[in-house]
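dude i think i finally got it to work??
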Amino acid sequence: MSHQSKPVVLVARIPAEGIADFRAYEGAVLPLLPEFNGRLDRRLRTPDGTIEMHIVSFASDEDFQNYRNDPRRTGQASLLEKSAAKLEVFPIADV
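look at this
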């Protein structure tokens, strides 16, 4: 990504019983990132797997919205719901 990329942080708080469903959700949606000029820059996880943080970058805000609205991504919402993960999304910038 160029220096003009739009980085975003996702923090997921996942109940222990939802980890498998959350990882299945990720397995379905993360591979879509390149189609929307997106990239997974970092993926961090606590040892127990209940908190995960992703730093992703998109070429534009429009690319990020298109990724979020893609039917292949939204079609996996049931896995995300089943995981009971609580998600927080923050736009960030290098300082």
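The beta strands are 6-13, 38-45, 51-58, 86-91.
im so relieved honestly
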